[in-house]
Specification:
This is Ribonuclease D. Keywords: Hydrolase. The protein is α/β, with parallel strands linked by helices and 411 residues long. The protein folds into 3 domains: 11-211, Ribonuclease H-like superfamily/Ribonuclease H (Nucleotidyltransferase, domain 5, 2-Layer Sandwich), CATH 3.30.420.10; 223-315, HRDC domain (DNA polymerase, domain 1, Orthogonal Bundle); 329-410, HRDC domain (DNA polymerase, domain 1, Orthogonal Bundle). It contains 21 helices and 6 strands. The chain has helices at residues 31-43, 91-96, 107-116, 127-133, 141-149, 169-180, 182-195, 199-211, 236-256, 260-263, 266-273, 280-283, 287-290, 292-295, 298-310, 332-335, 337-357, 361-364, 367-375, 383-393, 397-407; strands at 27-28, 45-53, 66-72, 75-79, 102-104, 124-126. Strands 1-4-3-2-5-6 form a 6-stranded mixed beta sheet, with helices on both faces. A hairpin with a 2-residue loop joins β3 (66-72) and β4. α9 packs antiparallel against α11 and α17 (337-357) runs antiparallel to α19.
Amino acid sequence: MTEPDQETPTELDVPLLTEPAEGVPEVVSDASGLGRVIESLAAGVGPVAVDAERAHGFRYSQRAYLIQLRRRGSGTHLVDPVAFGQPADLAELGTSIQDAEWVIHAASQDLACLAEVRMVPQTLFDTELAGRLLGYPRVALGTLVEEHFSVRLLKEHSASDWSSRPLRPEWLTYAALDVELLVELRDVLAAELEVEGKAEWAQQEFEALVAGADIVAEPRTDPWRRTSGIHHVRTRRGLAIVQSLWETRDEIARRLDKAPSKILADAAISELAALKTPDRDSLRKIPGFLRRQARRFESNWLDALNRALALRESELPPLHIRNEGPPQPRMWAARDPEAAERLTRIRAVLTTRAEELRLPIENLLTPDYVRRLAWRPPTDPTPELVDRVLAELGARRWQRDLTVPLITPLL
């Protein structure tokens, strides 16, 4: 507890890091510049800090629009992948640092866009994930840097439209600072993991990230069912309208490489689909369809609406699709009281163990794995069998070592 005569430090008491120590490098956008970066990074030593800026919320694609790298003995480099084609082929850049550990904050967010430009790590260290394993309550890069180095990073450009050109000078400063202290942060967190006996846990997690770095995710089944506001749509005909409008919007967004929400808001789709007799007049009364961008494609929306209205009853989508996994836990008590009790008992022991280990419970064991095991446990749940089931689901060795002895007796 803070003493009455002491002042609690505020954000303003912590100095703001406004410029990289070596200044902001020029953005590399041609073959000769890329060659110099490759040569410089290959001559550097130790881990390589890697970051990528995307245009989430602005573009349909999740491609990288700027890649930042930093290595001791090499300095910081900013590479514009857009200048090298769509998608760019930066395999030579990735190969030049293939022997090094890549340090990435929240690697699961950047690995896909890096793989798209053929940059795939062989080993990595995820500073966000390390922070989670160490029990830090907040694991944003800025928070961890402030905690360990008593400086604040610029924050205000993380949600900028990085696809726009030219990139603004203040954005480039922000981007360079994102890798300025990343290797130093890695070193501090790695030492803490060793002290707490969690280094092997982290290693297994990082290896799992690397193993999936260049794997393309399976597309979701009926992604249109995730449209915001769809719970207001009560009929199969209404769902057909949602599907038709969603797929039309998706095709337009993909073609224009714009975020679907910039074309037409989810709320407009759901509002039209929830009407008893949707038509052109009712469409023109919904605010979302009156936005300038949406009005450009009014004929597309009307065609999509008419296609859905023309479907035969047998062609309409079902109100619900069968879930391959267990139902939502809130439904368990009514559908299977024993399973509900199992889940409650398992969650309780895992929560206690996670608190003892100073871990988020979801990092101790993925909640979906817990639900699947509790809903339909093995007929004869021996530790060996439970371990095998969790391994097949994707649980790491360290997670199974800690949780199988706790879970098995409760099944």
